[in-house]
Design goal:
- This protein is α/β, with parallel strands linked by helices and 387 residues long.
- The protein has two domains: 196 residues, no CATH class; 157 residues, Nutrient germinant receptor protein C, domain 3 (GMP Synthetase, Chain A, domain 3).
- It is built from 13 helices and 15 strands.
- Strands 1, 2, 3, 4, 5, 6, 7, 8, 9 and 10 form a ten-stranded mixed sheet that branches.
- A hairpin with a 2-residue loop joins strand 13 and strand 14.
- Helix 4 crosses helix 7 and helix 8 crosses helix 9.
- It is globular.
Length: 387
């Protein structure tokens, strides 16, 4: 009996090993890198024959196997009823499984964004491979053309360019690190609104190999595109979000009519923003402080003169107050979209979250009054103040 029992144990062990090996092999085959097609960007347009046209950008494997060597981008498009359906059709076409874990950029066409992209954003967020840190772009041209012309000037690797270009917002203020995770959070938020990077073609004064530019922001109300911000308006947006380290502006020269002075500005402290209510309408008061350095220099400049510096500071204050006020009223009265999330400052004014919900901040944002005060402490410039 003991021998028979031992025989059964051996048979049972062998069967378990066979089952384990078979399961592992099947899992390995399905997850094997050789069976995957890694998308680095996705473009989503309206389709003439279906609901959507989805374009995938893949990188062909490097012949040398060297990861630092740029490989040829491959673009494939599919007409489909949904993003999920498009991925499935692309799987069949490629003979590989589309993998989105390395996707850096998700681009929506302006035409589609105007109609609303909530279904597409929810589908992408629900896709476990899509990272919330992937940037979201609204393109003023069709997304395939945008991707084809997004050729990096100084990077060997396209994914690296996609990853780093939004970070220029920290020192230019001309664009924003707008992710699909942030977009989704704003979409389900009751005190803020979504936004995305604005992408376009042939609208830049710069001449170079890359035809695309990413300057400005796309503004949404709920999930519908309602307008766009230019460079200086984007600077205002980033300052109020405390997401810019420094930026350059050209202000009127108080010493010479029809002339400009380039000023390098750094936010001094956390901005003082307060929300109150007057006759039921939001009243938003803010005090913004900056340190400024004069970049424009000439032989006869008198920027060491304290009176001249004060006049430049006043000119800068007036310029910035005008720009911030214009930006704020544009978001409230034109777009009716609180992309800066001022509703978060208003929350403390309500006794309960239910009371705040009943007020319906996003609908009342259009009734806001803004009071902007700017104070700039001006230095004559990097060289002159150090010598």
């Amino acid at each position: 009996m003991r021998k028979i029992s031992n025989i059964f144990k051996k048979i049972f062990t062998i069967v378990l090993i066979i089952i384990f090996v078979s399961s592992f092999s099947a899992s390995y085959n399905s997850l094997n890198i050789d069976n995957s097609a890694f998308a680095i960007a996705i473009g989503i347009d309206k389709s003439d024959s279906n609901k959507l046209k989805v374009t995938f950008e893949f990188l062909a494997p490097s012949p040398s196997g060297e990861g630092s060597v740029e490989t040829t981008p491959v673009l494939n498009s599919v007409d489909c009823s949904s993003i999920t359906n498009g991925i499935n059709l692309m799987n069949a076409y490629l003979g590989r499984k589309v993998n989105l874990s390395h996707c850096k950029l998700i681009i929506f066409s302006e035409e589609l964004a105007k109609e609303g992209i909530s279904d597409e954003v929810y589908s992408l967020i629900n896709e476990v491979q899509v990272r919330p840190s992937a940037n979201i772009v609204v393109s003023k041209c069709n997304t395939k053309y945008y991707i084809e012309n997004s050729v990096p000037s100084l990077e060997n690797l396209i994914p690296k360019y996609y990853e780093i270009f939004p970070n220029t917002s920290e020192y230019t203020g001309y664009t924003c690190n707008a992710t699909i995770g942030d977009f989704f959070n704003a979409l389900v938020c009751n005190y803020c609104s979504p936004y995305a990077i604005l992408g376009s073609i042939d609208e830049s004064p710069i001449t170079g190999e890359r035809e695309t530019q990413n300057i400005g922001l796309a503004v949404f109300k709920n999930a519908e595109l309602v307008g766009e911000l230019n460079a200086i308006e984007t600077i205002c947006f980033l300052n109020l979000k405390e997401s810019v380290d420094s930026f350059l502006v050209s202000i009127p020269d108080p010493q010479e009519i029809n002339s400009k002075i380039d000023i390098y500005l750094t936010p001094n402290t956390t901005h003082n923003i307060d929300v109150s209510f007057v006759n039921g309408a939001p009243y938003i008061k803010m005090k913004l402080e900056f340190s400024g350095k004069i970049y424009s220099m000439s032989r006869d400049s008198q920027y060491l003169n304290i009176d001249v510096l004060n006049s430049i500071s006043n000119s800068c204050n007036n310029y910035l107050e005008s720009q911030f006020s214009s930006y704020l009223y544009k978001t409230s009265t034109v777009f009716e979209s609180d992309i800066n999330g001022f509703g978060s400052y208003a929350l403390s004014k309500f006794s309960t979250s239910t009371e705040f919900d009943n007020y319906n901040w996003l609908d009342n944002y259009k009734n806001c009054t803004f009071d902007v005060e700017v104070n700039t402490v001006m230095d004559s410039g990097f060289l002159l103040t150090q010598t």
